Amino acid sequence: MRTKLSSILEFLLLKKSTLKVRLALIFSILCIFSMSILLRITIRTYSAQIIGHIYENERNLLKTGSALLDANLEKYAKMSRQIFANSKIRALLDSSGQNTVSGQKNRELRQVKEVFTETIYNLDTFDITSIVICSKDGKIFSSYDLAGEIDSYDNFFYQTIKNSDSSFVIFPTDSYRYLKTKTRDSFAIGRLIRNDFLEETGYLLIFISLDFFEQSLSKSNLKDSTSYYVITDQTQIMYRENHLELDSDTESVLLNAVQNHHTDSFILPIDGQQYLITKYDSDYSGWTMVSVSDLSEITLAVHTSFRRSLIIFGLIVIAIFCAAWPIARSFTKPLSEIQQVMSEISSGNLALRVSQYPSPDINNLATQFNKMLNRIDILMEENRQKQTELIETELQMLRAQINPHFIYNTLNSISWLAVFNGQTQIKTQLSNLTTLLRSAYSNPDQLITIADEKEILTCYTSIMKLRYDNFSLIFDHEECVEQYMIPKCTLQPIVENSIIHGFPDLDRPCRIQILFRRDLPSGLMKITIEDNGVGMSQEQQEQCLKDSGSGTHFNNIGIHNVDQRIKLKFGTSYGLHISSREGDGTRVLICIPLMTQGGELTYD
To answer: In what order do the strands lie in the sheet with 586-593?
Structure first.
């Protein structure tokens, strides 16, 4: 399901929608999502506030009711103390083991009953069912409003009172025997009676009807829509006002939950219904007052508020959709206009420009776009000028091609003329010159074998010997070296520099030696050109590699040009290195890769 939802969202936002629609949808979705979260938080907060308000009200009611119960219960505790302190009652119980005259004992019993009556009337009680005074063995010495003629009562009361640490004991609501009431449910207060020597002589029981709770709680304004319970710490129900008409099973679940929860308020779900449970513990009686509120009314109020919120939310959503479209359009309108301008420009109307916009971002985009168009105009104008220059250069090259053919034909005619006149030396030098011219006019970046380079260099030195006859050219290499390739016209500029600048006005024999060596481990061809000329200073050596020192000689190729051609063709790790001292000759080292006639690098 999540994958399908993601696919739908991707389809709406990315694949089939324009930017305007996507912006409107994204803006609407973000607003609706934010409003949904806000609505959910508001409903939860509202529900929590209502429940908190109900909890505070119920706690105050329970606190007031518990205080009223404690105050009325104190009256019966006071009455039990008065009966306990009555000397006649204590004397009667103390003499229970002695033989007394029957008439005297009857008079004492009548006096005790009068004490009961006087005490009850003074306390203004309204819900006492019976008062019983018994000896330790359960024999009744005196009673107030007991039904039937009985002489003894359950010894269970005495054992419970005796084992308690409290001054008086409250017995739970039950159907006790021999009580003269229409309803037999009552609870009892028990206290031990001692003589002047603090010896146990008997105990007192005061039975109180459930009117005690009804009369006490009638002043606490309990709600008619809430059920209330008074329970002991053993979760025995002392009194209930079951306005919710909960059955016994539900009441059992509620009381168990009250015993297990340590908070004063909690929500308890039972059979799909939620109840708010609130409790208050009395430190005086040990009773716990519990209220059970049905949350259905609260839920109904929350749902009503939720429905109203949904209506408001729906109106807000409609307003968002209505606002999202013009907002999205305000973003996309400039882009649409720029797109329209770009479309017309692509059709050939390069004079158009994008207008300025109030938005800084869109305005910056329009400015940069206009700058790009201006730059395109400049580049197109430069391109037109270059095309014009290129055409003129091609025309000049076509005109220049006439000169080499004319020179070759002329030299060929002179060569045959020399042959006819028996001038073999002239014919040989003309052939050497023709070879040099062909090499000069062909591609200077062409790779040739060392053997071919030697042939060109031999022709060149043969011609130079017509003018300079005081030098010799020596080649030193292995026979297999001649198969390797080097760039054309690599050696001639260096030899030319040695002849012209290295041997001026020297009387001693001049020598130029060229050594070819293969460095197989590093894959290099190392060519060394050495002469015994006048040498160069450090400044002259640096100048040779900075510009074309012999640019005015022969084919306009100098030492600097040779070094740059090697670096451009093979990389900066290759090239020329000059070492020289004044008066001690010059040594030029050329490093290039080992290459076969196929043009591939060779590493043996």
So the answer is: 471-476, 510-519, 524-531, 586-593, 575-580
